[in-house]
Specification:
492 residues; alpha/beta; nine-stranded mixed β-sheet; six-stranded mixed β-sheet; 14 helices; binds zinc ion
Length: 492
């Protein structure tokens, strides 16, 4: 069997003005998809491994991935789409294609266009109108009519943070294989659950998500059901399709999927009031004040404060300054801390260039923040000592700087890469556990931080990943939506 594989993974935050372009993406073409695309954290790995082990001949197309950010450049998307389709067209000249299995995010938005996945699948369907097509999706996928019309089977991640990507890919591949081997069609039922949920209220280990995901797993054991998923939408993307949804795929007959999706949607809706932040949480000023007290009076260390409103891994700009402004207002207290306050960090390419030009050990005047998120960020002038430089870090080839201002240590990146990566601080010679107070531009703490945190405080700071959804001025989402429109509202 000849199967088309490939994928696109980007979570596009429409509140962030950055246009995500070619420099922000890692893209593999053709055979590179198979040789370089494997990572345990990607659903494409599970797809490729499962189909290869089943003896399929794979037609690799394009695999594109970037850190969540603002919407994707139209020109760049058109290029990867054209490459994708060109490879399918070439394969079709050599023989028939039996199926398609793709690794997609589901909330990739392109400037002037909207849903990238729906656009790509629509073009693919013009070439392959009848073959079975299955997709692995991120839990934060936004389901659009185009996606539903083009794909036969869907599997979403069941974990947040997402640690089951490979399994999800394998599951999507198994759906395809079963349909191909039996000759029976897949059917997918969709139910809109009129809610939006802040990312930090939906960890899968915590109620109510743990019970709801358990219900999906139980449903997958029922006769006829092959996959059951909750897709949460992406709260920081303002578009008409944004909502939570239940998607259930069945084999051979649509009725089991319809019935199951109805039940799962009702179960989710019934738990809507139970979604809550796991961590203690306050506004920026209060968070930093409580963190100082925890360190200085209660002798707790390390205390973590998440700058959750400006979390680059949720697509925020990474240069909002709400929390930094509070720190600068209290810089004398920072000086009284027993070890430097570590702030990881800022995406600020001009500041990195200034520090690189000055060199390690030099003192230089920079401004930090406010390049992109000018609504929630100002250019804060700082005289810093350049403590450490690390060039060409990670898959996205970022330059990193560790800069000191009085008793404040800040990591600054030349690229929009996020701060949850466990190897970023070590690359600068920093151990988070050596600092009494650590501020990170993250939402919930990644395991590398959570495992060492004496206390975790979430600042509901201002930025493009503002966790207080009720305060976001949505213009396009279809209303009513819970909780934006009150407790009883949501419609159906
Ligand atoms: Zn996600």
């Amino acid at each position: 069997m000849r199967i088309v594989v490939g994928g696109m993974n980007h979570e596009s935050n429409t509140l962030n003005p950055i246009i995500t372009g070619e420099d922000d993406f890692v893209v593999f073409y053709g055979d590179e998809v198979l040789s370089k695309g494997a990572s345990p954290y990607h659903s494409s790995t599970g797809i490729i491994k499962t189909l290869t082990e089943a003896g399929c001949f794979l037609v690799p197309t394009v695999l594109a991935r970037a850190v969540p950010n603002g919407v994707v450049s139209f020109a760049f998307y058109q290029r990867i789409k054209a490459e994708f389709l060109r490879r399918v067209d070439e394969a079709l000249k050599q023989g028939s294609i039996d199926g398609v299995c793709l690794a997609l995010h589901g909330s990739m938005k392109v400037e002037h266009l909207g849903c990238a996945e729906g656009d790509l699948l629509t073009a693919l369907r013009e070439r392959l109108p009848r073959v079975p097509l299955t997709v692995a999706l991120d839990m934060h996928a936004t389901i659009t009519p185009e996606l539903l019309a083009c794909a036969n089977g869907f599997v979403g991640y069941k974990t947040a943070p997402h640690v089951d990507c490979q399994e999800t890919g394998a599951h999507a591949a198994q759906l395809l294989l079963e349909s191909l081997k039996t000759g029976r069609p897949l059917y997918t039922a969709y139910r809109r659950i009129p809610m939006l949920i802040a990312g930090e209220k939906s960890e899968s280990e915590v109620e109510p998500m743990s019970s709801l995901i358990a219900a999906c797993r139980a449903a997958e054991q029922e006769p006829g059901i092959r996959a059951a998923s909750f897709l949460l939408g992406f709260p920081w993307a303002d578009n008409e399709h944004n909502t939570v949804s239940a998607l259930v795929t069945s084999l051979d007959a649509p009725e089991p999927a319809e019935q199951c999706a109805e039940q799962l949607a009702a179960a989710f809706w019934a738990r809507r009031k139970d979604f809550a932040f796991r961590a203690e949480h306050y506004d920026s000023a209060c968070s930093i004040k409580i963190a100082y007290e925890a360190v200085l009076e209660q002798k707790q260390a390390p205390v973590f404060v998440s700058d959750s409103g400006d979390n680059p891994t949720a697509g925020a700009a990474g240069d909002a300054t709400d929390l930094l402004e509070q720190i600068m207002l209290t810089i004398d207290t920072v000086d009284s801390l027993p070890t430097p306050l570590l702030y990881s960090g800022f995406y600020d390419a001009p500041a990195v260039v200034a520090c690189l030009n000055a060199g390690e050990g030099a003192t230089v005047d920079i401004t930090l923040g406010g390049n992109w998120d000018t609504l929630n960020g100002k250019k804060i002038p700082l005289r810093v000592e350049v403590k450490k430089i690390a060039r060409n870090y990670g898959a996205y080839h970022a330059d990193l700087v560790l800069a000191a201002h009085r008793n404040l240590l800040i990591t600054i990146t030349s690229k929009h890469i996020g701060f949850g990566d466990e190897s970023l601080l070590p690359a600068l010679g920093v151990k988070a556990e050596a600092h009494c107070l650590v501020v990170v531009k993250l939402g919930y703490l990644e395991p590398c931080f959570r495992n060492i945190a004496a206390r975790a405080i979430m600042a509901t700071s201002k930025g493009c990943s503002n966790e207080l959804l009720e305060t976001i001025a949505y213009k396009k989402v279809r209303r009513p939506l819970y909780p934006l429109d009150g407790e009883a509202n949501g419609g159906s």
